[in-house]
Amino acid sequence: MTRVREIMTPGLEFLKTTDTAADAAKKLAQADIGAVPVCEPDGHLTGVVTDRDIVVKVIAEAKDPKKTRLAELADQPEVVTIRADDTVEEVFEVMKKYKVRRLPVIDGTEVVGMVSQADVARNLPNDKAGEVLAAISQ
Question: What would the pLDDT profile of 19-52 be if each residue is shown by its tens digit?
């Protein structure tokens, strides 16, 4: 069975809760990615900020991206993650259940990568990949 660590994007950088939405936008643009994990200064994962979060929660609300801290955007009561040794099928179930397109991958308490809907789709049979897309998009 294929494990998450085999399909994830490894070596993922993260931003801190004290960074700003402008910092996140720059990181997303430079890395050509749609989401970045956000951690406390001590490295504890507090959430994920997406390009959509920046548009909807900052730009659309006329907030200043240079003053809006990521703590405001990534303060999630429970961060949905997946373990590096979980299977692709488990990723599929978590994405479907929580309707998320990207998941931070953890090994113990450390964020070690990110797995996306596209990563999963490339590693599941076509019917399962379509099911993931349909479930997340509803």
Answer: 999 999 999 999 888 889 998 888 788 899 999 9
Q: Which of 27, 38, 36 is nearest to 9 (CA)?
A: 36
Instruction: State pTM to two decimals.
Output: 0.81
Domain that holds residue 124: 4-137
The string of pLDDT tens digits covering residues 43-81 is 788 899 999 999 999 999 999 999 999 999 886 678 899
CATH assignment at residue 112: 3.10.580.10
Q: How many structural domains compose the chain?
A: 1
Dihedrals phi, psi of 93, to nearest 5 degrees: -65, -40
End-to-end CA distance of the chain: 28
- Whether the CB-CB separation of 92 and 128 falls below 8 Å is answered with yes
Q: DSSP assignment, residue 60?
A: T
Q: Which helix (H) or strand (E) holds 31?
A: helix 21-31
Is the separation of the CB atoms in 80 and 103 below 8 Å?
yes
Per-residue tokens: 112: 């070690």
Runs of H (alpha helix) within the chain:
4-7, 21-31, 51-54, 70-73, 88-98, 117-122, 126-137
